[in-house]
Amino acid sequence: MSTEEKSIKPTIPLKLLVDETKTRVLAAEATSDFVNVLLSFLTLPLGTVVRVTKSHPGSIGCMNNLYQSIEQLSADNFCTETCKSILLSPRNPLALVCKNLKLNIDDTSNGKCFSCHYCGRKSHYPRTKCFCGCIANTEISEGGSQPVDKEQFVKRMTMCVITDDLQLLPGNPISLVQLLCNLGFSDVDQVEELSVDVGLEEVSKLLKHSLVSKTPLTDVFLGKRKLANISKPMDPRNSPTPSSENRTSPNHTEFRVKLILSKSQNKILGLVAREDFIDFLFSFCTIPLGSVVKLLDLNSRVGCVDNFYRTAESLDSEWFAISKSEIINAGVLKQYKCKNHPLQIPDAKNILYLLDPRSPTGKVDCFGRFMEAPHLFVVSDNLVVTPLSSPSSISFLKELNVPLNDIEEQEETMGETEALALLKASLTSSSVLNNCFKSSIDQKFNKSEVAGK
Ligand SMILES: [Zn+2]
């Protein structure tokens, strides 16, 4: 890139309040441009989050493995080629708002979509089969003929104070004083100001650190801490499975999976499941970060995102330029939803005449599947997914590196509670299946111990 092109890269000025030794960011004072960027994080589907942050060190639980598995699966595992593209580059439900931001790390919308020349139905993906039998292939501008709306997430004059652990507070002297007092500062002279320019590189770093660290502002702007892979097995006693109480209508979708256990190690080595479970697992990539936090009852324990969600939710609605709930819990486009899905995720705001690009016939609003059926897959404890064909079964068994007589199989049912635990563990643990099924496995091995005595 030439120096000229470099010099026109947009940046947002940000004022940091740091301690005297300049080793810690206490808070940032931000204008609407920066607040908009932070709010856009909540609208990013997890597949996009993984993709735009993967150049930075560290892994977000095992989501990076899951994403890489999709990349490596051949196209014939999916119903259509577009299914794979959707999972790798899921469309942000608020893509058109994100495009208006000064810094936008979501590159999934290029402002174009494809329309059926006969009936006018639209798709974000080329070569989508239309309801009427034609192919939607006429490239049009996504906004249609309507004037380009420059709406953003918060109103232009909004000022906010952001803490190092990403609490979003109203920008006024009172909240700043309270914050500094809470941090143990009694004298303004103990606080120094530092001005920085935030560009796209800093934004993607900030996104990554907000998912794996409790001090993302310090990490990114003072660079005092190295980003390590902090994901580790969770202790389920400290991290209760999100409750499925308070949910309006119980969801009775269930999956049957076969766990592969090592008897000597008392642990799960992997699982074998059908394509409908893989649809569900891969569909994590299509869920916006904010909707994930909401599904997990603001107890995702993913970096600082619970703090950010909670404080954004409590900001006065008057600060927002569009519906607050639509920003923080954007939902999933109906055209990406799965037929069998134990989690209750809202539909993203409806886009009229949108076709389901996964459907080979175009005859349905929601085709409901990504993976070709019938098909069996192996999922490892750290979420590497491979198709179960005979050669890969043998290589899978070899990789496990355990004596064949040590391997046992156990069938498990997976409903909403287990599905939520799986989502949470995928984002926070490096031993996802063992976390998710811990109680059931402990029970099994304790029982067999007792029986053996
Ligand atoms: Zn048509």
TrEMBL record:
It holds the Pfam family DUF674. Residues 238-251 have a biased composition (Polar residues). Coiled coil: none annotated. Residues 230-251 are annotated as: Disordered. It comes from the Eukaryota. PANTHER family: OS01G0153900 PROTEIN, OS04G0594700 PROTEIN. This is DUF674 family protein. It comes from Olea europaea subsp. europaea.
